[in-house]
Amino acid sequence: MGQRIDLTTGSITGKLIKLAIPIMGVSFIQTAYSLIDMIWIGRIGSNAVAAVGTAGFFTWLAEAFIMITKLGVSIKVSQSIGSKDYKKTKKYITSALQMNTILALLYGFFLILFNKQLIDFFTLGDAEVISMARTYLVTVSAAMLFFFTGPVFSGIFNGLGDSKTPFIINTIGLIFNIVFDPVLIFGLFGFPKLGVLGAALATVMAQMVVTLCFIIAILKRKLDYFVLKVFAKPDWQVIREITHIGLPGAMQSGLFTIFSMIIGRIVAYWGPVSYCSTKNWFTDRIYLVANSRRIFYSCCYLCRPKLWCR
After folding, report:
1. Residue 16: left (phi > 0), alpha (psi -120 to 50), or beta?
2. Burial of 116 (0-12, 13-18, 19+ CB in 10 A)
3. In Å, what is the CA distance from 23 to each residue of 27, 51, 75, 231, 297?
4. How confident is the model at residue 305 (pLDDT cuts 50, 70, 90)?
5. What is the pLDDT of residues 208-227, one digit of tens each?
6. Is 161 exposed, middle or buried (0-12, 13-18, 19+ CB in 10 A)?
7. What pTM did the predictor assign?
8. Tens digits of per-residue pLDDT, 110-129?
């Protein structure tokens, strides 16, 4: 799909802009997923919006775990590619996929196991909202692996100097979600009317499509260092290197979410309408700020191979 941009040769400014623009696009596309859900769910009512918004906190919190791997692997892959050490590139990619798979399975299992307690944290006080929130959370959690895989593949491609492919693939996923959200929520074209469950299923299927597209893109490239060996023996030194780089950004992302969750719990005292309004306004702005910072840091680190090789 996309052509790799080599930051180790020629002028860096133009190449960096060309690399950064699709990364920005992917970041806003990821924000758009939740906005699309809210647009269609809002037609059902404020209770449904409050339910999806509450469950959405935990998919947002998942980004903290995703960033451990995503930031770490994008930086280490870019450095190893810049120095033409393809054996290390292969190790970083393999270790990142292993880390990502374990984190996704553990986090998804945790959410399913404690979904009642997690939703009860917000003291929503409305049985219908609580039931819909738990339905959405369990559905999304069962497919958490796909929510983790797409961003990490994006990080790997960005590290390789190809940010166009993740942009195209994530756009395909967003279009899929836009189409199937109303179909499954309202039961169009003979599909059953599923409401909040439909929104969750549309989002899950969109993430599955994204993952499948990435796998196809990887197989088509036939690169020796870009292999999908999740069951290989873990290289703990490489895992530590990835974690060391990704953990600070992950902690920052996690704190944003936790602060927002605490505010959400306070606002929930005034009922679903006040809660869903405040939640959406507050988290959307925090999310955009976090994305902007992430784009800036990623671009800075992607420049490092050029400096590091000299």
Report:
1. alpha
2. exposed
3. 6, 30, 14, 29, 11
4. very low
5. 999 999 999 888 877 777 77
6. buried
7. 0.82
8. 999 999 999 998 888 788 88
Q: Which of 78-87, 126-135, 147-156 has the lowest mean pLDDT?
A: 78-87
What is the pLDDT, as a whole number, of residue 8? 57
